[in-house]
Amino acid sequence: MSEIIRVLIVDDSAMMRRAIKQILETDSSILVVGSARDGEDALKKDEELSPDVITMDINMPVMDGVTSMMHLLEQHPAVRIIMLSSLTQDGAMTTFEALELGAFDYVAKPSGTVSANLHVIGKELVEKVKIAAQTKRNRRQTRERFSPIKQSAKQPVKQQQPVAVKKTELKTQIMDGLSAFRKIVVIGVSTGGPATLMEIIPELPADLDATVIIVQHMPPTFTGSFAKRLDENSRLKITEGKAGDVLTKGCAYVAPGGIHLVIRKNLARDEWLIRLTTLPEETLFTPSVDVTMKSIVEVFGRRTVGVLLTGMGSDGADGMVAIRQAGGVTIAEDESTAVVFGMPREAIERGGAEIVVPSYQVAKEILKAIKRA
Question: Any idea which of 94-98, 173-177, 303-307 has the lowest mean pLDDT?
């Protein structure tokens, strides 16, 4: 790839195409080589222009963004596609589908399909285009890689763990108390996270002898929908974490966007609770992986399993160091499968990663860590 990043803009709104072009070309390393008015037009323009990165609107006539993206990845496997989605529940669910099928990342439009104030996400859009262009595409980002994973993950849930049984077992767990679970697993992830988690979470059994906390950098309006999508593809019961939730064996909690999730012990009873806080305020990401990991290790110590997956930056690296120093187990995703090898690399370089494995081995390592004495 040349130093100049060649970008194709796909959006059915002429105003949006102009706005995105103006934002991207504020960076001298980015050149907008063309634009397309719908998904079908995008296929033609991609073949003519061979861009490095495509920004793709989701809702378009003739051919929608997700359908176009799948055809584009067949036609041009090396291209990186960034989805532009609306901040709605429907927008969130479609975005997650796109990420599972091979989109590199997404940017949420601040005010719907046609956003006059698109400039507020300008810095994020430019940064993600540059990261996408710098990152090697790997096999895990292709359509073929995801389709069998999703199918194999869903099938055992239907055959071995029907929904009715799953809910009954969860009620029994709650009634029986909470002190029995062996460990707590805290997973931190950012860019590339939804698809990576869909590869890991469905492999965890319903009778997991632990509770799981997931911190995914994501807007506040997306995390509830994301938790629901994970739950539909998992043997675990997965919800968006709420203040006062009691940690329960065999359950997973997604940290809500826009606020930090921490764990506190209820001294009056033998239970651990989720608390939500705006402090500390100076963190780069909210929720912060570091904030959650450090609060958990203060309570659970060596019973903590820390997992750090794909993502840009260093959030979670210090938390992984704290977990390892307390005697817990730490697992980082290997560069061979990480969409962005930023967060895991920082953890490894700081000595916070005891185990480094590709994403498809992370679930197995989590189960081994839970069984450790």
Answer: 173-177
Residue 136 banded pLDDT, cuts 50, 70, 90: low
Q: Which residues pair with 266 in a beta bridge?
A: 271
The DSSP-derived string for 262-292 is EEEEETTTTEEEEEEE--SS--SSSS-HHHH
Is 21 found in the same domain as 95?
yes
CA 152 to chain centre: 20
In a domain, residue 152? The reply is no
The catalytic site residues sit at: 190, 217, 315
Its domain, for residue 277, covers: 183-371
Same domain for 200 and 289? yes
pLDDT digits (tens, 9 = 90+) for 104-130: 999 988 765 544 556 668 889 999 999
What are the residues whose beta carbons fall under 8 Å from the beta carbon of 304, sequence distance 6 or more? 183, 184, 186, 293, 296, 297, 323, 326, 328, 329
One domain, residues 191 and 121? no
Structure tokens at 353: 């990663």
166 lies in a domain? no
The answer to whether 25 and 73 are in contact (CB under 8 A) is no
Mean pLDDT of 245-262: 96
CA distance 189 to 193: 5
Helices marked H in 25-64? 39-49
Residues 27, 30, 31, 36, CA torsion sign = negative
Residues 223 and 319 in one domain: yes
Q: Record the tokens describing residue 205, joined without a space.
A: 């059994």
Looking only at the bridges linking them, the beta strands covering 260-266 and 271-277 are antiparallel
DSSP states along 314-338: -TTHHHHHHHHHTT-EEEEE-TTT-
140 pLDDT exceeds 70? no
What value does the mean pLDDT take over residues 187-216? 95
Question: Pairing mode, if any, of strands 271-277 and 251-254?
Answer: unpaired
Task: State whether 130 and 246 are in the same domain.
Answer: no
Q: Are 366 and 331 contacting, i.e. CB atoms less than 8 angstroms apart?
A: yes
For residue 168, being part of any structural domain is answered with no
Mean pLDDT of 159-167: 38
Q: How far apart are CA 73 and CA 224, in angstroms?
A: 29
CA angle in degrees (0–180, nearest 5) for 19-25-26: 95
- In this structure, the answer to whether residues 210 and 340 fall within a common structural domain is yes
